[in-house]
């Protein structure tokens, strides 16, 4: 049954003052103190922090094509449990999301699942081949209303293709999200290039392969007057380039992934493929630079790069394992940890980096709003006083490749609401199946 009326009692809005929030028919209806419960289901939220529903700019949902690793349903359930109300689905499905048909399919699957809004990202090039531009305009005009395009997994390394794509999306205020990796500098790469890669004898993925593309694309975006977004920024040098671009007023945005805020290349010494990711885990000086850049806003957003993989693709030799890690259910906890821990974190910065700014970058007008009467009620309730231990089998994702297994993390998501309806309540998924019957 659909519950249309809720009274959220005593939540600390954005971690500040406590208030009651009444939600009716999908929207915030009343915000104040001592609100009457009449006709509403009451959620006791004393001590909980209310944030706008989180928005992920970078999710691999694997459907269509690799439903043995994740589906739109399981992925959005993981998202809801992580506090997310919207996710942007990367284009490297099978088939690739490079046509109106595929992006509409992914969008519709998200609607049917009902756990989070799914905004498909379209491919920049046909088949992610980096050669011929896909029909960006057709995808934009489709029901999925695609505004962000990315060949993620691959870099748009051809500067002429990148230039044309940047020019093309200007016509509908679109955005290219670049996986910055100069492919000729990373051939055969297995881990971050540095002292440890030499010691382990593994081929290195040098920081300059990322930085060279970021520098190039900053210049291209400036030259054609378009905007560019950088996926999963992983090095201190990239931060410097982005900071310089912003000082010059160039229209660039950037995201960082939780794993790059917490883990270093030292993990690779275990040869456990769960730590294999692209771009790779870097050095502690990079981690420190990324944390500072996130706190200061040089990096605009946290994005998960949630990358589920089937067991056979991860429990094999390091060299043969697919790169990528789960992220949706652990991102909030790790972000809070990276921004100072639950006692010191500025919740407004968490809201900014994990909800408002990513919603604005992706053009998701219904998301990223603070509680305000009349606004769509997309929010999450977090308990900052609790901790939890990551147990892979307890995650909602079908895949199990979390690099955080066994780790004790701060903050639990107690509830998530999408358009005024609970997707998570008391820390558990609600049954959304009737919504789509
Ligand atoms: Zn990528």
Automatic annotation (TrEMBL):
PROSITE patterns: DIHYDROOROTASE_2. Binds 2 Zn(2+) ions per subunit. Keywords: Hydrolase, Metal-binding, Pyrimidine biosynthesis, Zinc. It catalyses: (S)-dihydroorotate + H2O = N-carbamoyl-L-aspartate + H(+). This is Dihydroorotase. Zn(2+) 2 binds at residues 152, 179, 232. SUPFAM superfamilies: Composite domain of metallo-dependent hydrolases (SSF51338), Metallo-dependent hydrolases (SSF51556). Residues 48-236 form the Dihydroorotase catalytic domain. The lineage of its organism: Bacteria, Bacillati, Actinomycetota, Actinomycetes, Glycomycetales. It comes from Natronoglycomyces albus. One of its GO terms (cellular component) is cytoplasm. The gene is pyrC. It is an enzyme of class 3 (hydrolase). CDD domains: DHOase_IIa.
């Amino acid at each position: 049954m659909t519950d249309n009326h809720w009274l959220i009692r005593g939540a600390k809005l954005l971690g500040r003052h406590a208030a009651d929030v009444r939600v009716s028919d999908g929207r915030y209806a009343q915000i104040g103190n001592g609100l009457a419960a009449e006709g509403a289901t009451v959620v006791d939220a004393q001590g909980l922090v209310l944030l706008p529903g989180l928005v992920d700019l970078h999710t691999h949902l694997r459907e269509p094509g690799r439903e043995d690793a994740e589906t739109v349903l399981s992925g959005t359930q993981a998202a809801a449990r992580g506090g997310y109300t919207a996710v942007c689905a990367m284009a490297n499905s099978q088939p690739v999301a490079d046509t109106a048909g595929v992006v509409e399919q992914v969008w519709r699957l998200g609607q049917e699942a009902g756990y989070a809004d799914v905004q498909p990202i379209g491919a920049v090039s046909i088949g992610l081949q980096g050669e011929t531009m896909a029909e960006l305009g057709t995808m934009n005009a489709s029901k999925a209303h695609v505004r962000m395009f990315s060949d993620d997994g691959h870099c748009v390394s051809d500067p002429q293709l990148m230039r044309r794509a940047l020019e093309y999306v200007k016509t509908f205020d679109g955005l290219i999200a670049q996986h910055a990796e100069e492919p000729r500098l990373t051939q055969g790469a297995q881990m971050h290039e540095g002292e440890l890669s030499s010691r382990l004898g593994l081929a290195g993925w040098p920081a300059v392969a990322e930085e060279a593309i970021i520098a190039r694309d900053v210049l291209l975006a400036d030259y054609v007057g378009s905007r560019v977004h950088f996926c999963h920024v992983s090095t201190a040098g990239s931060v410097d380039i982005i900071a310089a671009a912003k000082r010059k007023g160039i229209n660039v945005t950037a995201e960082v992934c939780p794993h790059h805020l917490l883990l270093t290349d030292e993990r690779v010494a275990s040869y456990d493929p769960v730590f294999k990711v692209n771009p790779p885990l870097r050095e502690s000086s990079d981690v420190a630079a990324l944390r500072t850049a996130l706190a200061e806003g040089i990096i605009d957003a946290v994005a998960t790069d949630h990358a589920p993989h089937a067991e056979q693709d991860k429990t094999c030799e390091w060299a043969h394992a697919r790169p990528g890690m789960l992220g949706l259910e652990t991102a909030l906890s790790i972000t809070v940890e990276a921004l100072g821990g639950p006692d010191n974190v500025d919740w407004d910065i968490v809201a900014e980096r994990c909800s408002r700014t990513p919603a604005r970058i992706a053009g998701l007008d219904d998301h990223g709003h603070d509680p305000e009467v009349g606004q769509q009620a997309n929010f999450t309730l977090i308990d900052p006083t609790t901790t939890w231990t990551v147990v892979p089998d307890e995650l909602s994702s079908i895949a199990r490749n979390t690099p955080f297994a066994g780790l004790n993390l701060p903050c639990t998501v107690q509830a998530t609401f999408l358009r005024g309806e609970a997707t998570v309540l008391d820390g558990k998924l609600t049954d959304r199946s009737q919504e789509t019957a």
